Amino acid sequence: MTDQGETAGTITILLVEDDAPTCWRLQDALVKAGYEVRTAGTLGEARSALNDAAPRVLLTDLRLPDGHGIELIRETRRRFPETEIMVISALGDEESVISAITVGATGYLLKDAFPTDIATTVRDLVAGHSPISASIARFIVRRTQTSVEPPPGPALNTAKLTPREIDILWGIAKGFSYAEIAGHLGLSRQTVPGHIKNIYRKLEVHTRSEAVFEAVQQGLIKL
Description:
Layout: E1 12-16, H1 20-32, E2 36-40, H2 43-52, E3 57-60, E4 63-64, E5 67-68, H3 69-79, E6 84-89, H4 94-103, E7 107-110, H5 118-126, H6 134-147, H7 163-173, H8 178-185, H9 192-203, H10 208-217
Helix pairs in contact: 3-4, 7-8, 7-9, 7-10
């Protein structure tokens, strides 16, 4: 896992965007901030770039000329578990959002709600946060409130998570970085990734978003 102290210049980004003006604008902002940026305009070009080298961060649109970004997210998460993945798309419908998060995206920004500083947003992503557009966040909260019935009585905890692991899960759900979680719980920052690996193994998941969803399903945490 990359440390928070990692400088922008050491962070490689694969930007997948078929709209040339949008791609140029994002690439320019990221390069000026010191990131190393490669670009791709199609699913095929993105796959070719991934074969050359694994990026630290994948920023991808969903609607591509020769396929869907969901395919790319799924493939990248399977091949490169350490790569952080953020969607930048005009698609804000339920199916697109849930599919992207389920297959491995840890951030989701709508094109009409770009942050003023995309470079800082990428830095937050690498630090362990999950940048999500406000409207998407509200949608996820509403969906969770309407679709997840809290279990009666004590929490299920079928995964047999320890109290410490549940505390860490709560920190992940709130978007805290590993360093922030460690500070809140009085842990060494280096021990947090180990706890998270155990959580993933017990919940049989592979991403933060999947872990949070499963924990909510089991009634272990509340958003």
